[in-house]
Amino acid sequence: MPLIRLYAATHDGHTARIAERISARVETHGAATDIRVLQGGDEPDTAGADLLALVAAVRYGKHLPAAEAFAAKLAAIQQSTPVALASVCLTARKPNKRTAEENPYLRKLIARHQLNPVAAHAFAGKLDYPRYRFVDRQMIRLIMWITGGPTDGVSVIEYTDWSTVDSFADQLAAAVEPVAKAG
Ligand SMILES: Cc1cc2nc3c(=O)[nH]c(=O)nc-3n(C[C@H](O)[C@H](O)[C@H](O)COP(=O)(O)O)c2cc1C
């Protein structure tokens, strides 16, 4: 059975939920998964894996530092083990900011580390004003003001389109399918 290893970089937990959803959906295709939460300083573990997927949250204009460091290491292993990328951010609320070409964080991540992912997508994350510290709340209010979202400082809105997450998982499962047939 092929194995997809998912690495999640999360600050507030929503990206971990997306990784869990990808895992559950991949497993419906008869592939195995395991999820690891990046702590910083992690090395890609390719043992037994047919694909490594990085699922990473964006904060302050970049993926979390643990994800950036991990992406650099993925560049070194992608020749032998295929990689996939999923970005989680509020910019992807907009339908025209979700592909590897259109999402600035994903595009820059790929360019910076010269990655060649078999699948890459940006998912809309969660807005959770009550959870944020004062300074973060003001920062998000500013981003929301610029991008036409709620600026009230109290809203909790999950923007994630779960069916798109499922489609991404389907792509990952399809990418390891020939291995399944061979094995
Ligand atoms: C302090 C802070 C900064 C953020 N910066 C950005 C940003 O620069 N661009 C963006 O699109 N989303 C930004 N977001 C939105 C997060 O990417 C989104 O809330 C995501 O769901 C967080 O995932 P997590 O729960 O796994 O940490 C930010 C959120 C917070 C709290």
Walk me through this protein's architecture.
This protein has 183 residues and is of the alpha/beta class. The protein contains 5 helices and 8 strands. β1, α1 and β2 form a beta-alpha-beta unit. The chain starts with a strand and ends with a helix. The mean pLDDT is 96. The structure holds flavin mononucleotide. Flavin mononucleotide (FMN) binds next to α1, β3, β5 and α4.
Q: Topology of this structure?
A:
Elements: E1 3-9, H1 14-28, E2 32-37, E3 51-59, E4 62-63, H2 65-77, E5 83-89, H3 104-113, E6 119-124, E7 126-128, H4 134-147, E8 156-158, H5 162-182
Parallel strand pairs: 1-2, 1-3, 3-5, 5-6
Antiparallel strand pairs: 3-4, 7-8
Helix pairs in contact: 1-5
Residues 10-15, 57-61, 88-91, 125-126, 132, 136, 139-140 line the site of flavin mononucleotide.
| Number of DSSP strand runs | 8
Through-space gap between termini: 7 Å
For CATH, the homologous superfamily of the largest domain is named as Flavodoxin domain
Question: What's the structural domain tally?
Answer: 2
Give a summary of the structure in a few sentences.
With 183 residues, this protein is of the alpha/beta class.
Entry keywords:
183 residues; alpha/beta; Rossmann fold; 2 domains; six-stranded mixed sheet; two-stranded antiparallel sheet; 5 helices; 40% helix; globular; binds flavin mononucleotide
